[in-house]
Amino acid sequence: MHTTNDYPIGTPGQAWSDAEKQAWYVAQAIQRSYADEVLSHLATLRKTFEVEQYGALPVDPERYPLFAVRSRQWNPAKPIALITGGVHGYETSGVQGALRFLETEAPRYADRFNLLVAPALSPWGYETINRWNPAAMDPNRAFRRGSPAPEAATLMRYLEPFAGKFLLHIDLHETTNTDNSEFRPALAARDGVTLDVWDIPDGFYLVGEADCPAPAFQQAVIKAVAEVTPIAPADAEGKLLGEPLQQHGVINYAARKLGLCMGLTDAPYRTTTEVYPDSPRVDAENCILAQVAAVTGALEFALQEE
Q: Ranges for the Peptidase M14 domain (predicted)?
C-alpha cells in the first residue's frame, strides 16, 4: 500500500475551489450511451413491469431521465425488495446486472415481493465512466437528509411513500483498478489530503451494514455468488480494503453514517455487492451474472425467512 496526492488538477494540500471542480467537469467526456445501453431496455420491460420516471438529472434533464421499474401487480400487503444499480456510474455490471435481473429472473419473484428496481442512478456518470457526479461529488456519500446530490436526493424523494415497508435492499457495485489509478487520486486532490492506495481484492465481496449486519443473509448471498464467480480472499491481515473480515467475503461499513445508498432504508436485509471486473478470472458477462446471482440469492434467503 502506498499514498497518493498526485493529480493534474489543483495544488497538493489545498482543497479544490469551484474553479477546480469546474475544470474537472470540463475535462470529462462522453464515452458511451445511456440511451443505447440502458434506456433501450425499458421498452421491453414495459411489457411485464411498470416503468416510472421519477426525475431527471439537472445537468441535462432530457438526456438523463431517471427511471424505476416496479411490479405491475403491486400489493401493499407484500414486502418490498429494493434493487439499486449505477450509484457509481462507472461500475458497469451494477447497471447491467440490474437490467439483466429484470429481463430474466424477476418474473419468478413478482408474486412474492413488490419488486422495485432503480437500475441506473447516475446516468451522467455512466456515460462519462465516472464515480462522481458533475459537481465532483460522490453520490454514494450523499444519501442523507437535504442531500446536495440530485442522484441521491431524487431517489430518496421517490422512495418516501414506501418507508417502513422494505424487507430487502441490495445495492450493486464494483471495485475496479481505476479506484487506485484515478478515483482515489482525484479524491485526495479534491479534498487537499493524502490518501492510502489500497490493494484491490481479487474477487467478489459484500459490504454489510454495521448497524444491521444480518450475517446469515450475507452468507447466503456469498454462497449463491460463489457458484458463478470467485469470492475475494482476505489479505495477509485478514482484511479487505483495510476493513476486518466479518466472514468469508464480507466486511461491514457504517452505511447510514457514511451516506451510502445501502443505508437509505430500514430493511432488515441489506447489502452492497462489489464485483471485481479487472480480475483475469472473469469477463464482463461473468460480472453481470454475479450481480444477478447476488440478487436472486438475497431474494431466496428473504423468502425462507418470511
A: 30-306
What number of CA atoms fall less than 13 Å from residue 131's CA on the CB side?
18
pLDDT in tens, 174-214: 999 999 999 999 999 999 999 888 889 999 999 999 999 99
How does pLDDT run across 58-77, given as a tens digit for each residue?
A: 999 999 999 999 999 999 99
pLDDT-derived band of residue 5, with 50, 70 and 90 as boundaries?
Answer: low
Number of residues in the chain: 306
Domain with 25 in it: 2-305
C-alpha span between 296 and 288 (Å, rounded) = 13
Closest CA to 47 of 102, 10, 114, 88: 102
- The cell for 251 is 466486511
User: How far is CA 166 from its chain centroid?
Assistant: 17
How does pLDDT run across 73-90, given as a tens digit for each residue?
999 999 999 999 999 999
HEC per residue, 87-98: CCCCCHHHHHHH
At residue 287, the 3 state secondary structure works out as helix
Q: Say if residues 152 and 133 touch (Cβ distance below 8 Å).
A: no
Could you tell me which of 288, 168, 280 has the C-alpha nearest to residue 225? 288
- Does 4 score more than 80 pLDDT? no
The pTM of this model reads: 0.97
Distance of CA 191 to the CA centre of its chain: 23
Q: Are 210 and 254 in contact (CB under 8 A)?
A: yes
CATH number of the structural domain spanning residue 215: 3.40.630.10
- Counting the structural domains of the chain, the total is 1
Cell digits of residue 294: 447476488
Q: What is the pLDDT of residues 105-138, one digit of tens each?
A: 999 998 899 999 999 999 999 999 999 999 999 9
| DSSP character at residue 251 | E
Residue pair 124/134 in contact (Cβ under 8 Å)? The answer is yes
Beta strands at 114-118 and 80-85: parallel, antiparallel or unpaired: parallel
- Which residue bears the cell 412474492? 112
